[in-house]
Amino acid sequence: MEFFITAIMLGLCLSAMSLGIFITMKIFNIPDITTDGSYTCGAVITAILLTHHYPVYFIIPATMLCGAACGALTGIIHTKLKIDALLAGILVMTALYSINLTLLGRSNVPLLNVDSVFTSFHLFKNELINNLITGIIFISIISSAISYLLQTDFGIAMRAVGNSAGMTRALGINNNKIKIIGLALANSLTALSGYLVAQYQNFTDINMGIGIVITGLGSVLIADALINWLGVRKILLQLILVISGSIIFQLVLAFTLSIGVDPNLLKLITALFVLLIVSIPRLKKEK
Fold it and tell me: Does residue 123 carry a pLDDT above 80?
């Protein structure tokens, strides 16, 4: 049972990244590969500041600002230099690997003897349950803030740019500026996931972000299937389903490991699972 609670906890930590991918993929229709780099960047900044004994709540804006800078750089390359969004994300992601390694100083930093966001609250004696409640509170605040933002005038402008860039341009909206801000917001959430996961697993590794975009993509696709099936239109409910998709994704992987599948095959299973999620709706449409 504890194994699956751990999977739920990891799903909660990664759900901030899933919310970021939801913004880039479902609102702007941009496949943003910057995620791999900004996720690691968030974890790296967290490790550096925690080992220098900075307060955990001071680290939150620092990680989000670094993630936002990564996303904004991708947005600037895409909009100002007219480079394809996918290629822009790959370029920034590649550059971030070297930057993250330089900042971290080595490939792996343990975080065993430092205070974390999960040790700041002691609501329950059971550490696992305490971590779970802390994660739920944290993600609830984030999802509520994003829901509020997406229902403001600026949030509506973001959604309009994704739906019809030509119409918003005719209305005088600066599409490039909106895209840059949107990518910055999405990657700040991704860096926040790196912040949470680094503290939950008690270490930061330079390779922890490799392929993480597939995990976020799978979570968003699960959520998209649930949104279409249930006919959900309210933004807050959609965000809740994205969080649920992240948890479901991790539970599927946990179940796979629990039945004795070799952990070395986990990345392969992740890729196949995402392929399954993507292909089934399309095969149904063809029929």
Answer: no
What is the predicted pLDDT for the residue at 131? 84
Q: Does the residue 262 lie in any domain? A: no
| Full-model pTM | 0.92
pLDDT of residue 282: 66
Average per-residue pLDDT for the chain: 88
Residue 27 inside a domain? The answer is yes
Q: What is the dihedral of CA 196, 22, 2, 255, to 10 degrees?
A: -140
69-72 long-range contacts (CB < 8 A, ≥24 apart) are 69/184, 70/34, 70/37, 70/38, 70/41, 70/96, 70/187, 70/191, 71/32, 71/34, 71/38, 71/183, 71/184, 71/185, 71/186, 71/187, 71/188, 71/190, 72/180, 72/181, 72/183, 72/184, 72/187
The count of structural domains within the chain is: 1
In angstroms, rounded to a whole number, what is the distance separating the alpha carbons of residues 179 and 76?
A: 9
> Does the residue 251 lie in any domain?
no
pLDDT of residue 214: 87
Task: Give a yes or no: residue 87 inside a domain.
Answer: yes
Range of the domain at 69: 2-207
| Interval 125-138: pLDDT, tens | 778 888 888 888 88
